[in-house]
Amino acid sequence: MIPFALETRSVVKRYGSLVAVDGIDLAIAGGEGVALLGPNGAGKTTLVEMIEGLIPPDSGQVLVEGLDWKRDGAKIRGRLGTCLQDAKLPERLRVDETLELFCSFHGRGLDRAEELLQLVDLVPSRKQLTGKISGGQRQRLALACAIAGGPQILILDEPTTGVDPAARRQIWEILKTLRTQGATLLLTTHFMDEAEFLCDRVILLENGRILEQGPVPELLARGGVSSLDDLFLKLAGRRILE
Ligand SMILES: Nc1ncnc2c1ncn2[C@@H]1O[C@H](COP(=O)(O)OP(=O)(O)OP(=O)(O)O)[C@@H](O)[C@H]1O
Ligand SMILES: [Mg+2]
Known about the structure:
Layout: E1 6-15, E2 18-28, E3 33-37, H1 44-51, E4 59-64, E5 67-68, H2 69-77, E6 80-83, H3 95-105, H4 110-119, H5 135-146, E7 153-157, H6 165-180, E8 184-188, H7 192-198, E9 201-206, E10 209-214, H8 216-223, H9 228-235, H10 238-241
Parallel strand pairs: 3-8, 3-9, 6-7, 7-8
Antiparallel strand pairs: 1-2, 1-4, 4-5, 9-10
Helix pairs in contact: 3-4, 3-5
The structure holds adenosine-5'-triphosphate and magnesium ion.
């Protein structure tokens, strides 16, 4: 049996009395694209960081291609490309040096760094210090670093927040291409159009639990609405509207 690319079994994460992730089961097949949606504080980043092995669950299990973080951390690490919500990059390196560094982590050379620089359109900023580039440029650099090793599984936390519309489209095209090449994608986003464009399925979280999930057309039909925005407001926006 082929294992899921990403799987969580009843994962729970508590911060004091707050249950940030409240027993979530996820199963994402190889090559599938899944978007995690939900209001601020829903638990998206917490869930994603457990899947990335950055924070341990209080209970439950996280598997990556059938491997458990507790036993096979080193093997898993090489299979994932991750982009954090507040990606930390080495501020004192220049943009091209940063990419070269990330490529070297994966045994890739200068040609790969050059390819990535062009892919995310940072050639004009290549000599700027990473700490001094704009927020949108930083997002694009973080994405380039995440895919430096050509990972088959991508986990991206709000990859286009703060980038201008043209750069957003460009990031979408990059991700779409990677998906057509077979990559698995798990992303969090507040942009419904992004979820629809890049993913086969969306999962709506609130208060650390799954409210709804499924392919977009199915969810719209079930919710009796015509757009994901409307569905979001209907299901998760109750608090906002009340
Ligand atoms: N390190 C932490 N210590 C205490 N509470 C935390 C910590 N990290 C997250 N939380 C809390 O857990 C809950 C879920 O946070 P999380 O960052 O996972 O939400 P999110 O869905 O990613 O939100 P956003 O859309 O704003 O990024 C929030 O109530 C948050 O305050
Ligand atoms: Mg978040």
